[in-house]
Amino acid sequence: MGILVVAIGLFVSFGTAWLVSDEVKYLTRAGAEEARILERARPLEQVIADLGTDAATRGLLKLVTEVRSFADSIGFAAGDTYTTYTDVGRDTLLLVVSASSRTCICPHTWKYPIVGKVPYKGFFDPRMARAEAERLEKRGFDTYLRPSGAYATLGWFKDPLLSTALTRDSMELAATVFHEMAHNTLYVKSATAFNESFAQYAGYHAAARFFSARGDTTAARRALDRWADERVLAGYYFGLIQRLTEFYASKPDSAALDSGRVALGQWSRDTLTVHVAPLLKTFQVGPVAARPINNARLVGVLIYRTHLDWFEQWHVSHESDVRESVSALSGLMSGVPGDSAFVRLEAALRP
Fold first, then answer.
1. Can you tell me the distance from the alpha carbon of 135 to that of 315, in angstroms, rounded to the nearest whole number?
2. Sign of CA dihedral 336, 205, 163, 159
3. How far is it, in rounded angstroms, from Cα 25 to Cα 46?
4. Residues forming a β-bridge with 116
5. Edge-to-edge, what's the strand order for the sheet holding 141-148?
6. What's the CA gap between 8 and 114, in Å, rounded?
7. Closest Cα to residue 277, out of 233, 225, 231, 227?
8. Which residues pair with 101 in a beta bridge?
9. What pTM value is reported for the model?
10. What's the CA gap between 304 and 201, in Å, rounded?
11. How far is CA 183 from CA 199, 298, 349, in A?
């Protein structure tokens, strides 16, 4: 989930001075893919009424229409988002590349019109994604490739619901729809971690309120439990990132860097299995493989799990009402520079 930064630039800024040949190629492919997605989009009501649509898909699409209506009722900017549906014909829509130096948790960023700086880059073409990752690895970066099945264009396009986002888990589907509409409702330029962490908060709390209003207390409870798990995991990753930051600040030589990362990887696995796993309500932690430390993977953690407890504090301070909380937060963030969004939120939370 996240903001689409692959197509907007083509439509807004093609041919401008900052473009180089690789970017022209990238944006041309992205724009063509976005155009195909939009061209193949069908109104949700039409797909639901189509006798060729299987019962499971029909039920999930009906749920999306209900979530959209509820989003409007609680002040989310639903607009035209997810009024149409596109079957993209494959399991993976996008591959997203993140990168970071091996000696700090400091994300490599890409700059785009409208959205500003972002610490990832999405590719419709897997080969281009892998080529970008290889190019960065040759420059000494840690890299991380992950699939993404949904995105938002902040209202610049009539975003269709994509088949890759149509999870069979109705709670997660509802949370995804609310998450993407939260981006339409509040977006701070060049503040990716703030935007995505906010959308995590808004998505799960709105889903809980939605299912509660329907009398589905089981799904409502699970949405809140998932949000609680996200905060537990945020604390775990914060501890790991803090230890790594202190280690990198000691300026280890090449051999010490490698051995230190191995040792901290072991600490991370032990902490997760012994101390964190028992606290989780919706996630299952099985045997943890000896996955090495990867700063780029941790950049992804920062994108989606930064100061989640602050958003929960803000929610509680607004009578645990997601409508009031999101509305007030939108007002608080009016005109804020991207690098000051969390600073302003923290200041507002002080007694």
1. 42
2. negative
3. 35
4. 112
5. 121-123, 94-101, 141-148
6. 8
7. 233
8. 141
9. 0.86
10. 10
11. 6, 22, 22
Taking CA atoms, 290 is separated from 100, 223, 271, 287, in Å, by 20, 30, 13, 10
pLDDT, tens digit, 9 for 90 and up, residues 78-117: 888 899 999 988 888 888 999 999 999 999 998 876 667 7
User: Percent of the chain at pLDDT above 70?
Assistant: 89
What is the distance between the alpha carbons of residues 28 and 24, in angstroms, rounded to a whole number?
6
Tell which phi-psi region holds residue 285, choosing left (phi > 0), alpha (psi between -120 and 50) or beta: beta
Q: How far apart, in Å, are the Cα atoms of 169 and each of 56, 114, 223?
A: 11, 33, 11
Record the tokens describing residue 119, joined without a space: 């610490």
Distance between CA atoms of residues 324 and 224, nearest Å: 18
Instruction: Return d(Cα 147, Cα 122) in angstroms, integer.
Output: 9
Query: Residue 156: how many CB atoms within 10 A of its CB?
Result: 14
Residue 271 is predicted with a pLDDT of 94
**Antiparallel, parallel or unpaired: β 110-112 and 141-148:** unpaired
Residue 180, pLDDT above cutoff 50: yes
